[in-house]
User: Which sequence fits this backbone?
């Protein structure tokens, strides 16, 4: 598994590898292209994930970068999810899908 020093480095490299979509986490799906695509838990796979911890701040400064592929829509992209009190409420299906399983 590749490792990155920071989130920006990872995003730049992954974009060069074809992960160009910017996915947004909604309650029961992922969205991209200003809501043009709504991708549900059974329509995408998580290819990999990378955790970044901001050592100079509280645990709220941590984030996870997921690389995601949707064969159904022919899309590849990234999702950034931060650990904070502002985390989204999501359905059980989405929570299970985004758990660390690797």
Assistant:
């Amino acid at each position: 598994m590749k490792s990155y020093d920071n989130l920006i480095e990872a995003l730049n490299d992954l974009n060069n590898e074809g992960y160009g979509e910017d996915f947004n986490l909604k309650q029961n799906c992922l969205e991209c292209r200003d809501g043009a695509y709504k991708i549900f838990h059974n329509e995408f796979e998580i290819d990999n994930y990378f955790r970044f911890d901001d050592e100079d701040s509280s645990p709220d400064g941590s984030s996870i970068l997921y690389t995601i592929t949707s064969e159904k829509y022919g899309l590849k992209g990234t999702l950034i999810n931060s650990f904070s009190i502002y985390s989204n409420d999501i359905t059980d299906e989405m929570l299970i899908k985004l758990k660390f399983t690797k």
